[in-house]
Amino acid sequence: MSRTFLGLPAAPPRAPRSTGNLRGSEPFPAAAHTELGNTQLRRNVGKATRTIRDKRLAVTGELPDWEELRSAGAAVKADVLARLPELLEQFEAAVTARGGTVHWARDAAEANEIVTGLVRATGSDEALKVKSMATQEIGLNEHLESEGIAAVETDLAELIVQLGHDRPSHILVPAIHRNRAEIREIFQREMPGVDPDLDDDPEQLAAAARTFLREKFMRCPVAISGANFGVAETGTLSVVESEGNGRMCLTMPETLISVMGIEKLIPAFADLEVFLQLLPRSSTGERMNPYTSMWTGVTDGDGPQEFHLVLLDNGRTAALADKVGREALHCIRCSACLNVCPVYERTGGHAYGSTYPGPIGAVLTPQLAGMHEQSHDPNASLPYASSLCGACYDACPVKIDIPSLLVELRHQHVEQAPPRGEAAVMKAASLAMSSAKRFTTAQRAARLGRVLGGADGRISSLPPPLNAWTGSRDLPAPPRQTFREWWDSAEGRGTIDEARRESRGGAQ
User: Around 442, how many Cα atoms within 13 Å sit in the side-chain half-sphere?
Assistant: First the structure.
């Protein structure tokens, strides 16, 4: 018999709690209550989401095969997840064959250390960045800053968030909660050398950002990017964007470091045909992205001469192991579900506490980072941050059934959560309803609750642990008599006899 110890099967690890931005500091209801009090934020988010929503409806309606495209996108993503290990190996071999170096990161801490070491090897204390959800997820900017390296965001919205010492509140438009006047104030306060007479005209604001970033582009030797797609058969990566900053980052520095979640793969180059139609229409309401950059390894004398790819797990394998929840990994980060969500439209993104806000974030975040990593985990409240209206499912370009996933996560939360007052009340109700005698006794005891009712017969406040029920609704006060008591009373018998006489008269 072999002495080799093969170990015991174990669940894949979630994203670590101590690193990155996948967990807020307070539950969604408390955070949402604070955000709802910010009328300026609600006005800004509502206007922006309505505008994007209308544009999306117009351009998707132009395509007679839009539903077929959605089905094709969903099928490709399902195929990727079904054979992810095989495609990742193919992808690594293709990137390496074309001069790139592949690094594997199990979690945020490993990814941050790898990127920091690569930046430090260039001798630079500054790195350019193109908008990347993966690097936000792992808290790369904060880690680089702690290591004495300045990460400069080059996407205009990300730059606004960075200069404002703020947090992104939307997947696609991180500064959606800011208006032009607020952006001008941030630029005047934080941007070196900006015109003191800068007004809030969008062209002037963009010109100020362009001037600020141009000097960075010309001298910084290293850039960090994410990736919208990675093509397994060729080792090609792709970034789509609207401003041209991404193309500058991907071509001018000597060293390019890309951080990509392992679920961003597509099998073949031809699959881009599907996603480059789905993504721009769903995200910005445009027929195609203004800039689509693709790169495959390195090319002598052209573009970055050193290319590193960091493949990030950070809880994705754990999500993949969930037979129901793995569907969330189909997400292509278009944000269409955010723009149609009535909950997101009123609270904005900060209330979700995660890099991934909105309906897809309420599904993805608990799966990547868990819901029970700490007592009263804020992530446990995210599956309830939805009205389950289904608008997100209708808008999703790859047909992720987000409402069903939210219900499943609620089920998992109830199954895993420690016993609560609600469970005790339900158990007591079950016991009472299993016996006619006990049920009658319980009904009579419930009459004591009439003392809590107001003059209008409504109870507006219950003591703990039932106070959550009346936190957002009133409860009718218990009636003076039960239905059985009314049935046996003179009033009840008279009413029933009269109804019978009317019934016989109608029958004649």
Answer: 13
